[in-house]
Design brief:
- The chain is α+β, with helices and mostly antiparallel strands.
- The protein is built from eleven helices and twelve strands.
- The strands form three sheets. It has a six-stranded mixed sheet with strand order 8-10-7-11-9-12.
- Helix 3 packs parallel to helix 4.
- The longest helix is centred in the middle third of the chain and has 18 residues.
């Protein structure tokens, strides 16, 4: 019996496809660059000139890592790969912005069942575009082919980012006090949290990705893939103007739980549910899935992608600055004496 020769390609890994993906994404990645980036001829590492930090008196490096959860499954099912990278950058870089850190650079990791060069280039191209919007560099990444573990059309992605903030400019709960005002910064939609519940609703009801709800006037799948709004530069603009005490990135756990993380143990945040109307996508999902309101509150951002806690006397100026930057925002609530909780009233 003649045994067949074993090769990497026979095992399901296509090195040539990986190399073509790298070539396809090069020009798009080049757009996500900062002056401090130093080219590494070997390509094994991303280099960043740390001498740029010499202008800081006491620079604190901030780091964050995240993924986009099961939203990747909807991108796969719809065959749309150019927006999911925006979600990754939003999840990673906007976490850095919460403490007032300027994002410096980011790396990404994509695992897939089969490398399809055009698909990988679209994903990474989206990451690069979003990095440019956030003002950070995309200095490297990795695409890994996992045949046998993932189906050929399956993929997942994650990323890590690094930023810097002056120690005495660090934002957070210690700056927050009674009388502060909570601003809501509008989300672009669901962003990248709660998609396991979304998929459950799609699997157990008559709703499909092709359904066109009257409230949306476009297919549900198209609405669900709307990319995450990226707030980093808007948050930094508020911080540089001295108009903010703390931020809360509204991701998994919902508005109240995430905002509570930015409160001291001596304060509560009372939020007015009547101060805004959640975008229609949330009403559609709640209606199709018969989702109780408490479940909606703890699963989705409900239209608030970022919250800013600002001094009472700075609220109008902060709202004006956000309006100039074309970020819809409003007064969401106030900070009162308490025990470190946030509540939707």
């Amino acid at each position: 019996m003649t045994e067949r020769a074993s090769t990497y390609e026979a095992a399901g890994v296509d090195i040539a496809a990986g190399e073509r993906a790298v070539e396809l994404m090069k020009s798009r990645v080049a757009a996500a660059r900062r002056p401090e980036v130093v080219d590494d001829a070997s390509g094994f590492a991303g280099l960043f000139d740390a001498s740029a930090l010499a202008r800081y008196r006491r620079p604190l490096l901030a780091t964050s890592t995240d993924g986009v959860g099961t939203k990747v499954d909807l991108a796969r099912r719809l065959g749309r790969y150019d927006t999911i990278g925006h979600d990754l950058v939003g999840m990673v870089i906007d976490d850095l912005a919460v403490c007032g850190a300027e994002p410096l650079f980011m790396t990404d990791y994509i695992a897939c069942g089969k490398v399809v060069p055009e698909r990988i280039a679209d994903i990474v191209g989206g990451i690069a575009e979003a990095c440019a919007l956030a003002g950070c560099a995309l200095v490297g990444g990795e695409t890994a082919e996992h045949p046998g573990l993932l189906e050929p059309d399956e993929f997942d992605l994650a990323g890590a980012g690094t930023g810097v903030v002056e120690a005495d400019a660090l934002l957070g709960p210690d700056r927050v006090g009674p009388g502060d005002v909570v601003l809501g910064l509008a989300s672009s939609g669901i962003h990248a949290n709660g998609y396991s519940l979304v998929r459950h609703i799609l699997a157990t009801t008559a709703a499909t990705l092709e359904t066109v709800p009257a409230e949306l006037a476009r297919p549900l799948g198209e609405e669900l893939l709307v990319p995450t709004r990226i707030y980093a530069r808007d948050c930094l603009a508020l911080a540089e103007a001295g108009l903010v005490h703390a931020f809360a990135h509204i991701t998994g756990g919902g508005l109240a739980a995430n905002l509570a993380r930015s409160l001291p143990g001596t304060c509560d945040a009372v939020l007015e549910r009547a101060s805004w109307t959640p975008p229609p996508i949330f009403t559609v999902l709640q209606g199709h899935g018969a989702v109780p309101q408490p479940e909606m509150d703890k699963t989705f951002n409900l239209g608030v992608g970022m919250a800013a806690i600002v001094p009472a006397g700075a609220a109008d100026r902060a709202l004006a600055l956000l309006a100039e930057r074309e970020v819809p925002a409003w007064i969401l609530g106030e900070v009162v004496p308490g025990t470190g909780t946030a509540e939707l009233a």
